[in-house]
Amino acid sequence: MEKNTKDEIREVKGFLPKAIKFADEINEDFAEGIAEFYQAIWDERENGLSMKEKHILVFTVACASNNVESASKILERLKKFGATRTEIYDAMMMAAWTGGIQNFTNVSSELVDKINKLGFE
C-alpha cells in the first residue's frame, strides 16, 4: 500500500496533527491537502531555516499569542533540536515585545517551569 502525505506526517511527528485529523473526517482529499501544506512548511530546504529556527519562530508566536499549551509542546521539540536556554529566553523576550508584557506574564511562569523540567542548558 502506497503511503500518502498524512502517513508521512504521522511518521515524522509521531502523531497526526489535529487539523489533518479533523479535515480527514470531512474529506480525505481536503486532509491530504492540509498534510501537503504542513509538509511544505516543515520541509528543510537548502539555504532555508533549520528545524530549530522554525520551532523557535513558532514558539515565539505561541508565546506572543498567549498560547501556553502550544508553546509548551514546542519546547519539547526545541529540546530535540538542540535549542539552548538562552535562545528560548530570547524568543520569550521577543514575544513580550510583539505580544505585550501581559502575554509574557501569563505564559512565563508555566514555561519557565517546563524549561527547567526539560533541562535546557
From TrEMBL:
Residues 29-107 form the Carboxymuconolactone decarboxylase-like domain. GO terms for molecular function: peroxiredoxin activity. It comes from the Archaea. InterPro entries: AhpD-like, CMD-like. This is Carboxymuconolactone decarboxylase. It comes from Methanohalobium evestigatum (strain ATCC BAA-1072 / DSM 3721 / NBRC 107634 / OCM 161 / Z-7303).
